[in-house]
Amino acid sequence: MALISISDELAKKSFTSVENKFITKYLPVLEPVAVKVYLFSLYIYQNGLSSYTVGDMAKSLSITEDEVKNYFEYLEEFELVSVISLSPFEIKILDAENVYGTPKKIKPEKYSDFSKTVQNIIKGRMISTNEFREYFLLLEEYGFEQDALIMIINYCVNLKGDGIRLQYIKKVAKSFADDGITSAKKVDDKLSAYTSSTPALIRIFSAAGINKQPDIEDDKLYKKWTAELGFEDEAIGAAAKFFKAKTTEKLDSALTELYKNKKFDVKEIEDYCKNKNSVFAATLDIARALGVYMQNSAPYVENYVNVWYDYGYSFDCMKEIAAYCFKHNKKSFEDMHEFILKLYNDGTVTDYIVANYLAELDAEDKFIKKLLNICGLTRKVIDWDKTNLARWRSWNFSDEMLIEAANLSAGKSNPLAYMNGILSVWKAESVFSLDKIQKSAPSPAKPAVSDKRTDKAAIEQHFYDLRHKAEYAAETALARATADEIYGEIYKELNALSINLAFAEAKNSDTSEIKKRIKKLETDGDKRLGELAISKSDFTPRYSCKKCNDTGYLENGSPCDCMKKFISTL
Fold this sequence. Notes:
By secondary structure, this protein is mainly alpha-helical. It is about 65% helix and about 0% strand. The protein has a two-stranded antiparallel sheet. Helix 7 (about 130-140) packs parallel to helix 9 and helix 21 (about 415-430) crosses helix 23. It is elongated, with a radius of gyration of 37 Å.
């Protein structure tokens, strides 16, 4: 009869699977609470409890959060788990097929002198057999010289006291081994180099209120902050102060953020921190002004608002620009960024200058609207209208002359083309004032549009209008589609993948996964366009003449039938 059996009721219940190798090899030698932490981790994962936190686990096991983290580090030393993130704290459960974690039988008498020395160093407690076994594993698996490991243990005890945990000593020892430092001489050199940076760390910790003594891990971070990121001690202290970083992990995160935003000087760090809350608030205001929904504002802060702030634009100025962009159909951070780049390149930065410039643009739009109304057009102002106005003004025509040309063009089948023709004649005849119109030009009822130059200008304007109408409709359809959050993201990713595909094909790399992803996105995009009642064909200009695509000329350069028809109406 079997040693153990289970009831029928138990057989029907749910279970958590555990590797047999864990039970046979690790359970007999692991600390009891570590076994609890490991089994509970398996339970959390296998039951899909993704919202579980370290705090929840600590509460369930009646231990502290720090103890949970320490036991995970303990299990990591056996390579049963891997700590993949400290903030937020995350672990990955590994299989039991490992090298260093596998318990071994080691003859203690081989290390009798070593054991006596270690016990003399750690005087406050008796070292257990299991702890000694872990030290022996360090010697055998990592190749430490006995004197080298003794120096590391002595350093750790001097730093943390007799109550130091085995996990901390092993963590420090493994960090030395990872750097290839396993001999007594190399350990001594490493500790000497660390000692040279200790005073700076002590000053920084004291100023920041970090209540601990610097250790080897802190020394690694200090070298990263100074050598890699380029911060000076005073700036590191300022970062700790203004970010209220009470741990080295938080200080490291703060310095990484400052490095990304190119803030290295104490004054820059102070200003950045003072404005940080204002930046996020301003980003929300800008998003509202643009009509943009943000699920996470951080990328918009980093990629746009902080950049604009560094250009010299105030938050109030940004909000004013955002309001202007929304009114003129620039309803995204990308569109606003393009507009701000134009302002910046033109030297239009300060609040007063920007306000005047926007007022000028608004006045320009009002004047264009007035011209359109005189011509009998009721549509919105578009970029092409602004291009026309800029051209006419570059011909040295005053607003009075433009209004007169609009009056003469009212009622025509294509008033703007007619207006352009009139202005081109006036320009050729140097007619730049109203009094000269009366003397040299025909009556308003019948302007001289039969001139060949006028005819040519009217023809060019006519076909420009046709092309622009078709292309503007296509651009508007695309803008409407990409303004949708779902389709907008699909469109951006498709563009990025198209670039990746081109590079991959150029390098003769495998493109199957990229093509598969593109096909999936295109399907999702078509579905979303259907929900928006938009056809993908709307993105392609629908020219009125399919033969010449509204250019007036065929591919061989001869006039198209549509051009001949239009000329007959002049």
